[in-house]
Design a protein that fits this description.
Helix content: 10-25%
CATH superfamily: Glutaconate Coenzyme A-transferase
Number of domains: 1
Largest sheet: 10 strands, mixed
Number of strands: 13
Number of helices: 4
Strand content: 25-35%
């Protein structure tokens, strides 16, 4: 039986997949973003890049397809698509830093109203570092962050200013949560879509900064 949490993660990943246009080169971050690969339709041409040195990542493998030597940057086993290629870490980051990645879809812990992203460190927990995230948020042409709208204490994760150490300042273009789709604009945070089961008032009540709400906000959008 699929848990409510797993269903929520899948809902976010399915919505995020709609942000990927045909013929795009895409980097999927560790965690929930890797689920996006499972929802790319066969009629859409997308090349997934993994910073550990793989171009052409496919969906997660079935039990019969698992190859323990074939992994993504999060050390999860993956599949490859026809024409996939392998290369060293330095070449992978040359692709990222050279702005050859059209879209990066990453997870987030906190996002500020001006697009600052914190997604690598939790105080009190031992971490090895932010990995490739710092390069990705500056090298990708478009950065989309997917995450829960609130934390486990029902507190907003979209804030006026991040409290956690930053991955990058002013780097996020769009936020997709289980409750809404929000764009970072020069005028402020603009509400684009509201998920089924939520109202405009619900979204504002669980978002610290004031939201721009125009008449064309889509309700029950996903």
């Amino acid at each position: 039986m699929t848990s409510d949490k797993a269903m929520q993660r899948e809902k976010i990943a399915k919505r995020a997949e709609k942000e990927i246009s045909d013929d795009s080169y895409v980097n999927l971050g560790i965690g929930m973003p890797t689920l996006v690969a499972n929802f790319i339709p066969e009629n859409k041409t997308v090349v997934l890049q993994s910073e550990n040195g793989l171009l052409g990542t496919g969906p997660f493998p079935t039990e019969e397809e698992v190859d323990p030597d074939l992994i993504n940057a999060g050390k999860e086993t993956v599949t490859t698509v026809k024409g996939a290629s392998y290369f060293d870490n330095a070449e992978s980051f040359a692709m990222i830093r050279g702005q050859h990645i059209d879209v990066a879809i990453l997870g987030g812990m906190e996002i500020s109203e001006n697009g600052d992203l914190a997604n690598w460190m939790i105080p009190g927990k031992v971490v090895k570092g932010m990995g490739g995230a710092m390069d990705i948020v500056h090298g990708a042409k478009r950065v989309i962050v997917i995450m829960d709208h609130v934390n486990k204490n029902e507190e907003p994760k979209i804030l006026k200013a991040c409290k956690l150490p930053l991955t990058g300042a002013g780097v996020v273009n769009r936020i997709i949560t289980d409750r809404a789709v929000i764009d970072i604009t020069p005028e402020g945070l603009k509400l684009i879509q509201v998920a089924q089961g939520y109202t405009l008032e619900d979204i504002q009540a669980t978002t610290e900064p004031d939201l721009i709400m125009e008449e064309n906000v889509e309700l029950n959008a996903f």
